User: Fold this.
Amino acid sequence: MSIQEHLGAHAVPYKDMMADYKKRNEDFFRHPSKYYMKPFRILGDLWYVGDTRVCVHLLDTHDGLILFDSGFPHTVHMLTQAIWEAGFDPRDIRYIIHSHGHYDHFGAANDFRELYGCKILLSAADAAMLRDNPATSFLEHIPCPLAENPVPDIEMQDGDIIRLGDVAIRCVLVPSHTPGTMAFFFDVKEGGKTYRVGYYGGVGFLSVYREFLAEYNQPLSVRDDFFASLDKVYGEEVDVVLGNHPSQNKTLEKREKMLADPNGSNPFICPTEWRTFLDTIREQLRIFIDAGY
Ligand SMILES: [Zn+2]
Assistant:
């Protein structure tokens, strides 16, 4: 199998990757509602309220709601609609916990804080990245020219535990896709059983191309950190893998399976998926770097 086949969109020169990225976004920016997805319960009190391009997860802690990420800046209306459609009130959101500091994940943060008073969380490392180098968030690529990077209320550190209601979320710093990408681990209960959820908050290679790192004044050593971060969380026991783009954990395919067989086993529960996922990313990253990108 050629490198191109193996890596798909990852294994193209940076300028082609950027051109492809912009092209794929064109229709989404013009007609975002075509990408709306009916919200659904993954398991227990964990819901999917994202669209078909980027994931947003909602966790009901019974003492307020937590969102993981907040979508693109031009789809705030879709996220609001999805939260209502799932049966929740956005005014009950207490925290928006962000996986990393790119515009496609923090899009509703500023609006939701203004409207609902929730707190914005981002790792200290990515908060610093946005302060020192605001363009790193890719904000220039969106169709909202005046949108701003959020300034977080809480800067997360490696090992932090976020507690709310009956939930405790462990935050693990995994420098990789950005210097401050975070992984999160927490329990969700269903049918008398407890399931461990694992969420690695960013694995795309666009931000680790040599050209990107040079353009945005970031060190090449980010790529060594990437490998170390994959190792750092490899030993976690995870029953349910979440993605921050649907392709990361096949969100859409799993949802289709749920709809096709509502009484079948939950396709999101898969205790081997976490390590398979990390192994695949490690292998792809090795090939990507060896190919000279
Ligand atoms: Zn990103």
